[in-house]
Amino acid sequence: MSTIRILFLGDVVGEPGRKAVIAQLPQFKQHEGVDFIIVNGENSAGGRGITPRIAIDLLRAGAAVISTGDHVWDQPEIVDYFPTEPRLLRPLNYPDGTPGNGSVVLETAKGRVAVIQIQGRSFIQPPLENPFLAVDQEVARLAADGVKVIVVEIHAETTSEKIAAGRFLDGRVSLVVGTHTHVQTADETIFPGGTGYLTDAGMCGPEESILGRSIESVVWRFKTGMPTRFPIAKGPVKLCGVLAEIETATGRCLAIDRVALQVPEIPAETPTPPR
To answer: Which of 21, 133, 178, 237 is buried deepest, with most CB atoms within 10 A?
Structure first.
């Protein structure tokens, strides 16, 4: 029986998160026998959005696909980069004509793997087209093309919308993983139809933080209601996600495990002084 091991890492937050991910991806591949890696990079540029340079660095480090979310357009230069890099996804349920794609199919040594990203509509901006209708159509298209291994990410605020998406797709896709809240859930499971599921993968960012941001600044905002900046926190980083083993012939999930790896803080690069 042939299987493929897929690692999905949750929202990468700022420089600490992306440096830790880039440093650890080769080790994941070697020590965990990972065949395919998906990384959510929508908070990788200073906590908001992603740049072409960061996307290139994550791909070179071993990510096969990079997903985004509601902060996808926060770095303006990414708009023109989307048409040049199909492995960088924005939510599928943006209207026609939006730059980029919401799904991709990649050839691997173990067969084709499809990745789809959708964005929820409950308590999240901007409001997009119905993600259930969009993913229903896309999964049907991929199945008709003979793709067996299909991973769906739902970037959404509410647990109910994520669970509903997982149940809706049970038996039709290999894995459904939620992102956006930055807090890893402990409900990994395999649904009756053979679809692996986790409500939220969590984040890859500073552990002593509030969703990757400075504790003091976020608490001050809640206490006072006054606007303030939310700098990225410092200190050791926790990489969170999920590792799933998929049967390539059927697309069924055979095993699913949460990933929560603590790594030391990687010092920021110091610019070389001019001579």
So the answer is: 237
Dihedral of the alpha carbons of 158, 179, 91, 129, in degrees to the nearest 10 = -10
132 membership: H or E segment, kind and range: helix 131-144
- Cα 43–Cα 60–Cα 54 angle in degrees, nearest 5: 30
Residues involved in catalysis: 71
Q: pTM for the whole thing?
A: 0.94
Question: Beta strands of 126-195 (E only): which ranges?
Answer: 149-155, 175-179, 189-190
Residue 274 is predicted with a pLDDT of 47
Residues in the chain: 275
Q: Given this model, what pLDDT does residue 38 score?
A: 98
Of residues 8 and 275, more confidence is placed in 8
Which fold, 3-263?
A: Purple Acid Phosphatase; chain A, domain 2 (3.60.21)
| pLDDT tens readout for residues 3-15 | 999 999 999 999 9
Strands 237-247 and 203-206: antiparallel
The angle subtended at Cα 43 by Cα 81 and Cα 201, nearest 5°, is 115
Beta bridge partners, 198, equal 177
Query: Is the per-residue pLDDT at 273 higher than 70?
Result: no
Task: Give the separation between CA 238 and CA 207, rounded to whole angstroms.
Answer: 5
Yes or no: say if 200 and 185 are a contact pair by the CB < 8 Å rule: yes
Q: How far is Cα 119 from Cα 130, in angstroms, rounded to an integer?
A: 9
How far from 80 is each of 9, 18, 70, 84, CA to CA, in Å? 25, 22, 17, 8
Distance CA 91, CA 68 (A): 7
For the chain, give every domain's residue range: 3-263
pLDDT tens-digit readout, 135-162: 999 999 999 999 999 999 999 999 999 9
Q: Which two tokens stand for residue 259?
A: 């990933």
In the numeric block, which tokens belong to residue 151? 């991973």
